[in-house]
Fold this sequence. Notes:
By secondary structure, the protein is mainly alpha-helical. Helix content is 73%, strand content 0%. The chain has one domain. The chain is globular, with a radius of gyration of 21 Å. This is Na+/glutamate symporter.
Amino acid sequence: MAQMLALSIIVFVLFVGEAVSIRTKAWIPSIFVSGVLFLLGYWTFFPADIVTLSGVPPAVAVMLIYLLITNMGTLLSLQELKDQWRTILIALSGIAGIIAALFSIGTLLFDYQTVVVAIPPLVGGLVSALIMSEGAAAAGLPALAVFAIVIYVVQGFAGYPLTSVMLKKEGKNLLTKYRNNELTLKEMPANQPGTVDKPVKEPRMFARMPDKYNTDFFKFFRLALVGYLAYLTATLLTPVVEISPFVLCLLFGVIARSIGFLERHPLQKANGFGFAIMALLLFIFDGLKNATPSMMLEILYPLIGCIVIGVVGMYIFSFIVGKLLKVSKEMAFAVSLTALYGFPADYIITVEVINSLTKDEKEREVLTSHMLPPMLVAGFITVTIVSVILAGIFVGFL
């Protein structure tokens, strides 16, 4: 198969998944549609190495992981996290609930390695699924390497409807309070979807350098350098303690932004974010080439079981912590559920629910100010930060 034909086919598959998600207002996840199409492709006419043929070999994917995770670190706003400390505690409690439930009940039903592989993708996204899939493959566990990807592909089906139900209940309660003059409009944090971006002055190490020299290549260079420093630090620490370089990329990204070496979201500003996500998605789906129909049947039981047990554990823990922090059980559970999908699904679902509850623009503003910031912060904490850290730790257990 010619390289450009291979690339055209698999990128078209990604587009179909995205189109279905848009059409169904994210009720059918794009990842699920694309995953099913890749499986059907591998079972019919796709060459097993179609992703490599298209020009995305493993070395390219690993390079992009370094850039993407370092870029994730630059998205961290310490002020927003400080303002949403209750949300963060509830989101973390939900993750703790998943871990506790799967390590207690899950290990009684499934083997230890299955539980270890399931947790990071279940509380995270693309990167954590990839880390666990690669780790399972390296440990000689091909079925679990596929399992890590499949649980990432399917988990949204549990998260989307449950979140919608919880947010609708929360929204109705907030509307009642607002109409009874018991609730006011909150100021929305800057630089969040749904708000007008306000210019935020950030420390810039290169403030004296003319902007015309801050080219795309200069942004890529700084991202790569920070990623290399993370890798070098992980290598130097190996004799003492083994830390995934990907976890350090996240930390180094935060530090690099705080000292002004990197700006916020440099990969997007360098026009590389979309390509990086595309290539990484293709590499993720490359892991499905080993998934035979019999293997899919084999992992179906632990797949459903892990998701159900994890969600129950999440609800119990988030309910308890939400009660202690005086946050409604509906909002607490919705915040925890962001771990199953992250951004942009957290934004899309919240906005859709708000629009379905009222046609009054002022009421929508009030609901948005109370519901959107915690949902976005929770999605960032769970999917972007905690899941990568957990994957870096759990991959060592295999």
